[in-house]
């Protein structure tokens, strides 16, 4: 069967496929789209689903044409291509089908990017933890551009170190940063710090093979080699002109970083920066609410307890006056004063006990988490007679003040629930850091959790358990409550700790290896070495989105 001149020179690909789904004939456009020689294509399985009449990759929300189907084709070299196609059976025997198809890879790519940005923006409306939001954002970047891996790093609480907060692609391992630091000690430079310090993207070609060939990266060869990747790009997260983190993108073989790719990464970096800012604002609002609540408690303390204590002191003075009299004091008067003092003392004690739980968490800031918990255990034993076995492991000094306060509140609530609901005689409390996570378990020998159909909330765990979980989720952690096999209840808290990459100035050397071009140049108008937060930019020369695009380089310097 011969093509007519019209079919041979048609702008869209045309192919005839046999009943087994193999190419029989292709026009010039089809051969170009498949990027293989015509002789190699004939007899080769086609990507089109002919027998069932629909594609395994169904149309997405943004696809056009109900009769058009989608498939993916892998050419001899380069990235996979996405084809939109239509089929029509040919008359006669043997059964054959003519297929018209076109390359929609770029269009689909743009649609995925738009959808990724939209989904990420929608996720910001939820109050999930920052780790969960940035993990989801990393997944969106990876899926939209079909990358090998993505990492998102942000500044820690101190503002002095970077910590990994979101990732996709690479398998997670607890010792990643230990190995990264070992690579730096062996002479590897961390080029992502260039992007952070200069607040501009860094793009390096052929980075995957270069890292595998560099002995300085030997500690991470197995981890970095778990995926096939080639180019590397690091884009800063900019917030009000200041870098607060970076996105590292690892590109699959055959992918090249161009201007549109950088623009997409910058758009997602802006989304990540908004997420970081959003969570910081929530944290500030919560801290403001705490301060206001403490001020309210102080006012209540003054308005009720202080006045009651003043009344007790006045009654004591009356007793002193009566005691100084030389004549006999009526028993009724003494009894009345004693009853008033007793009633006032009981009221004061009740009010103090009601407030002490809300006022006590600040002790974690004064004493540190371990000493604050020890003081809590001691006071609970003295007050209730409950026996404790307290086991404290190493690593608690890594925990920041805000995290420690929330952990203390969770532990205090767990112990409060044991005292109030469990009917226990003994509590085992364990605290320690394992695999870069703080793990706390509170186990009692009480009556345990009754089986209550239709509910997963332990008794007494309504507001208290919700508060515990919200405090844990603030740091990307979890709280689990469940029965113990031998009786009693166990509360388990797990909070991932930020493992930081120190912003060591020595990690970004001023001099490059001879003959090796820099990945990017200082922006116009700024002398080399001037920090991004230095002289104010010229208002007459605004930069689009606060960013510039470096020219991709084939430098073989360390990328990560």
Automatic annotation (TrEMBL):
Domain Histidine kinase, first and last residues per copy: 407-499
Catalytic activity: ATP + protein L-histidine = ADP + protein N-phospho-L-histidine
GO cellular component, one term: cytoplasm
Lineage: Bacteria, Bacillati, Actinomycetota, Actinomycetes, Kitasatosporales
InterPro entries: GAF, GAF-like_dom_sf, HATPase_C_sf, HATPase_dom, His_kinase_dom, PAS, PAS-like_dom_sf, PAS_4
Name of this protein: Oxygen sensor histidine kinase NreB
Region (Disordered): 444-463, 501-560
GO molecular function, one term: 4 iron, 4 sulfur cluster binding
Pfam families: GAF_2, HATPase_c, HisKA_3, PAS_4
Protein function: Member of the two-component regulatory system NreB/NreC involved in the control of dissimilatory nitrate/nitrite reduction in response to oxygen. NreB functions as a direct oxygen sensor histidine kinase which is autophosphorylated, in the absence of oxygen, probably at the conserved histidine residue, and transfers its phosphate group probably to a conserved aspartate residue of NreC. NreB/NreC activates the expression of the nitrate (narGHJI) and nitrite (nir) reductase operons, as well as the putative nitrate transporter gene narT.
Species: Streptomyces tagetis
Cofactor(s) required for function per UniProt: [4Fe-4S] cluster
Gene3D superfamilies, sorted: 1.20.5.1930, 3.30.450.40, Histidine kinase-like ATPase, C-terminal domain (3.30.565.10), PAS domain (3.30.450.20)
Enzyme Commission code: 2.7.13.3
Coiled coil: none
Keywords noted in UniProt: 4Fe-4S, Cell membrane, Cytoplasm, Iron, Iron-sulfur, Kinase, Membrane, Metal-binding, Transferase, Transmembrane, Transmembrane helix, Two-component regulatory system
Topology term for the membrane: Multi-pass membrane protein
Low complexity composition-biased segments: 448-458
Compartments, as annotated in UniProt: Cell membrane; Cytoplasm
Chief place where the protein resides: membrane
Compositional bias of kind Pro residues: 529-539
PROSITE patterns per record: HIS_KIN
